[in-house]
UniProtKB/TrEMBL annotation:
It comes from the Bacteria. Residues 92-153 form the Peptidase M15C domain. The lineage of its organism: Bacteria, Pseudomonadati, Bacteroidota, Bacteroidia, Marinilabiliales. This is M15 family peptidase. SUPFAM superfamilies: Hedgehog/DD-peptidase. GO terms for molecular function: peptidase activity. InterPro entries: Peptidase_M15C, Zn_M74/Hedgehog-like.
Length: 183
């Protein structure tokens, strides 16, 4: 199961998550942080649900050729998934959720999550402002085919696998308990 505890985040991100919540509260918006660290298997399932086999196979080949075979294996291991609406471009390891450097949040209105921007513009705008204030990168600003409104991350980069070599990625994921079944 994905964690929704901000204590699962790295200390710098945990601190910022608290500040974002405070900022929203001060401005009259109640915010639910519903995902922090997401297990690699869960990311793999989301990834497979989001794309056709050609795209998935291409990603597997790319990961293997770049030394990330241990991530390609996770995509293979979760098996075929019924394709739905595209919800993520990120394969396992390609999301900052695996590194404790991202969270997903939604503004609440009368206790109910307002997933659609058009249903609660002022809430989403406040959330976006809070992220900017804390120097976080907002998924609503991603230059991709879909905007990831709930998503916030510490690093402006789009892909953690471009930041570190395979052995470092493997070490971080192991330390986070994502590669040894603790999640
Ligand atoms: Zn996210």
């Amino acid at each position: 199961m994905a964690s929704r505890s901000i204590k699962s985040l790295i200390p710098e991100m945990e601190k910022k998550a608290r500040l974002v919540q405070e900022y929203c509260k001060t401005n009259g918006v109640s915010l639910l942080i519903y995902c922090t660290v997401r297990p690699l298997e869960e990311q793999a399932v989301l990834f497979r649900k989001s794309h056709d086999w050609k795209f998935i196979e291409n990603k597997i080949n790319k990961l293997e050729s770049r030394g990330f075979g241990f991530l390609a294996d996770i995509i293979k291991d979760v098996g075929p998934q019924k394709q739905i609406k595209s919800v993520t471009n990120a394969a396992p390891g390609e999301s900052f959720h695996a590194y404790g450097e991202a969270f997903d949040a939604v503004p609440l209105l009368s206790g109910k999550p307002m997933w659609k921007y058009s249903d609660y513009k002022s809430g989403w705008d406040t959330y976006a402002k809070a992220l900017k204030e804390c120097d976080l990168t907002w998924g609503g600003n991603f230059q991709q085919k879909f905007k990831d409104l709930p998503h916030a991350q510490l690093c402006p980069g789009s892909n953690p696998l471009k930041l570190y070599p395979p052995e470092v990625i493997k070490a971080i994921l192991t330390e986070n308990g994502l590669l040894n079944g603790d999640y």
